[in-house]
Structures are given as C-alpha cells and as structure tokens.
Amino acid sequence: MDKEMSLKNRDRLIQLGITISTFRKYRGLSQEQLAERASVSRSLISSIEAAGIAKSFSLEVFYNIADALEIEPATLLSAPTQFDNLLKQNT
After folding, report:
1. Which pLDDT belongs to residue 52?
2. What are the backbone angles phi and psi of residue 86, rounded to the nearest 5°?
3. Whose CA is closest to 14, among 41, 54, 46?
4. What CATH number is associated with residue 19?
5. What is the extent of the structural domain holding 19?
6. 19 burial type by CB count under 10 A (0-12 exposed, 13-18 middle, 19+ buried)
7. 35-76 tens-digit pLDDT
8. What does the radius of gyration of the chain's CA atoms come to, in whole angstroms?
9. Rounded to whole angstroms, how far apart are CA atoms 82 and 59?
10. Average pLDDT, the chain
11. Against a cut of 0.90, is the pTM above it?
C-alpha cells in the first residue's frame, strides 16, 4: 500500500511540475523570473518542472509559486481543466 501511495503522489508531483511550467510559460516568465517572484532558487523551479522527476516541496513554496503566477493555488491543483478555461477566457 505504501508503494502504491508513493507512486500516486509521484504522478501528482510530476503533473504539478508540468502545470507550473505551463502557467509560467503562459505568463511569459523565465524560470529565473518565476524564482525571483516566488523567493526561491532557479534550481528549485527547474527541478520542480523537470519532466519525469517528482520533486517534493513545501506548502509555503507552493503558495509562493501560485502568488508569483498570479493564480489561486487551487488552480494549480485542478489543472489541466483550469488552464484550458483560462485560455478560453483570454482568446
């Protein structure tokens, strides 16, 4: 059961990293700019966004990233549906 949960969480962390990367690019930000706005290192942003890598990070960092992207934290968790809706609103 523990292994099953860690695989599930791994997939969630990978999806969250993809979502953060997608929103960052949508906002026209580099990893360096997002890191500066979120008060974290660029290497942390890079490892969070890295494809196929499940990088865990604190809730504080999660909130800082959401604030830096100017979106609600829940939006990051409910993507890709929320991202699709955002794109539709802005087209």
Report:
1. 84
2. -65, -45
3. 54
4. 1.10.260.40
5. 2-89
6. buried
7. 999 999 999 999 999 988 888 999 999 999 999 999 999 999
8. 13
9. 20
10. 87
11. no
Token digits for 3?
A: 């292994």
Residue 2 has pLDDT above 80, yes or no: no
Separation of alpha carbons 63 and 65, rounded Å: 5
Average pLDDT over residues 12-33: 95
Q: How many structural domains are present in the chain?
A: 1
Residue 71's nearest CA partner among 47, 49, 48, 38 is: 38
Q: Cα(90)–Cα(55) distance, rounded to whole angstroms?
A: 31
What is the SS3 string spanning 14-70?
HHHHHHHHHHHHHCCCCHHHHHHHHCCCHHHHHHHHCCCCCCCCCHHHHHHHHHHCC
Q: How far apart (Å, rounded) are the C-alpha atoms in residues 63 and 1? A: 29
Extract the tokens encoding 91.
């087209």
How many residues are listed for the chain in this entry? 91
pLDDT higher than 60, residue 15:
yes
